[in-house]
Structures are given as structure tokens and as C-alpha cells.
Amino acid sequence: NAGVTQTPKFRVLKTGQSMTLLCAQDMNHEYMYWYRQDPGMGLRLIHYSVGEGTTAKGEVPDGYNVSRLKKQNFLLGLESAAPSQTSVYFCASAGGYGANVLTFGAGSRLTVL
Amino acid sequence: AQSVTQPDIHITVSEGASLELRCNYSYGATPYLFWYVQSPGQGLQLLLKYFSGDTLVQGIKGFEAEFKRSQSSFNLRKPSVHWSDAAEYFCAVGTFIQGAQKLVFGQGTRLTINP
């Protein structure tokens, strides 16, 4: 049982380049989330989704776009990467309405030069 | 808006010693509270959670936490730490929007274990 899988695990970008992080879950969860983790700041919510075809902004959405075309996948895109987006990105998912436990992926480390 | 403060950025304890990690939260209603642990290079794993009822909650790996409403605290404890407990620990408060659990995390406390 894979749980939540993030690809790629590591990526280095130049300023202005674009990329997409993929999150896949095999637990048939309704809710999916993207967080970023920065030293001394804990994890902050970027975007989330309450079901297939839906997305919503979190705490720090600027500079990111997301899509949830399939229930099992949640994509995080950076259209024009900036050094401030250097971070570790975590995807998480949760079951159904009111589900209170999030399952996290292992993280994707992104460096923007 | 809700917030979480973990006053200790880094704590070092000796193996076998007791541990207490502090967490203070700010939230207007009854909070949903969580402790997660992150081992190096790994994702977050849930240690325990509090929603209601008994204010002392038991978690995995021998951890427990006590909810104190009067102090807005949810401190994590373990009677005797093991070298494998070295990790980063995050306290979080959760709210529900459209049925989705949204977590606000503290800054994290890094735990080092001396042999």
C-alpha cells in the first residue's frame, strides 16, 4: 500500500522556469493538500482540494497553481519559479467529510537558483 | 485566526530521561489538536490527537499529551526517551472548512538525544 507518493523527490530549477509536482494517493481519499515547509516556520498550507475538480487557496497560495482532474492526483505547478519558492513541499490526503487525520507524503525538495 | 507556538526550537535530552515538548495554541472555539513527528528526510507521522473528552491522550511510541484549556496548551510528554525518538516534532491545531481538515502548524521542535 503506497499511501501518498510525491514525484519528483528532488529538483533544481533556475529562476523563471516552470515545473509541476505530482501527488498521487491510492486510498480513495476525498481531500488533498499541498504544504510547504521552511526552516523555523513549520508547514504552511498552499492549496487544497475537497474533491475531484475542486481547488481552494490556503495560507500562502501566491505563485502556485493546482489542479485535481482525477481524484487520486493533485498537481502543484510553479509557472515562473522564484528563489523564495525554494522549500520542501509536502502533499497530504484525508478520507471523507470530517476526516481528521492527514496522511503525508515523503516530501519534494525544490531549489530555485 | 488560529495559531500555534512551540517555544523551544531545539531540545537535547539524554537517552532514558523524561521529555516534555511545549505547545501553546490560539483558537476561539474548542480546538482539534495534533502532534506529528518528522524523522529526517521523511514525511509527517501522526503521534496523537485530541478532539474532546479525556484531556490526557495516549499516542503511539509511548507518547502522551495533556490538553489544558485554561493554559491554551497541549504539551507532549514521554517518560523515557529512546535514541530513535530523535526527530522534529510539530504541534498543530485543526479546523474544518467544507469538511476538510485544515491544519495550522507550529514552528517545530527539534529533539536531539544524547547517548
Task: Name the features.
heterodimer, A: 113 residues, mainly beta, 7-stranded mixed sheet, 4-stranded antiparallel sheet, 11 strands, B: 115 residues, 12 strands, 0% helix, 57% strand
Question: What's this entry about, in short?
Answer:
The complex is a heterodimer of chains A (113) and B (115). Chain A is an all-beta fold.
Describe the structure.
The complex is a heterodimer of chains A (113) and B (115). By secondary structure, chain A is mainly beta. Chain A has strands spanning 4-7, 10-13, 19-25, 31-38, 42-49, 56-57, 65-67, 73-78, 87-94, 103-104, 108-112. Chain A is globular, with a radius of gyration of 13 Å. Chain B has strands spanning 3-5, 10-14, 19-21, 24-26, 32-38, 44-50, 56-58, 64-68, 73-78, 87-97, 100-105, 109-114. In chain B, strands 2, 5, 6, 10, 11 and 12 form a six-stranded mixed β-sheet that branches. In chain B, 36% of the residues are buried. Classes of the chains: A mainly beta (113), B mainly beta (115).
Query: Ranges of chain B with pLDDT <50 over ≥5 residues?
Result: none
How many individual β-strands of chain B? 12
Oligomer: heterodimer
Major interchain interface with per-chain residue totals? A-B, 29 and 27 residues
Shape of chain B: globular
Spans of at least 5 consecutive residues with low confidence of chain A: none
Strand content of chain A: over 45%
Radius of gyration of chain B: 14 Å
Order of helices and strands of chain B: EEEEEEEEEEEE
**Approximately how much beta-strand content do the residues of chain B carry?**
over 45%
The helicity of chain B comes to under 10%
Mean pLDDT of chain A: 93
Gyration radius over CA of chain A: 13 Å
Average pLDDT of chain B, rounded to a whole number, is 92
Report on the biggest sheet of chain A.
7 strands, mixed
Order of helices and strands of chain A: EEEEEEEEEEE
- Counting DSSP H or I runs of 4 or more residues, the number of helices of chain B is 0
Cα end-to-end separation of chain A: 36 Å
Class computed from helices, strands and strand pairing of chain B: mainly beta
Main beta-sheet annotation of chain B? 6 strands, mixed
In one word, what is the shape of chain A? globular
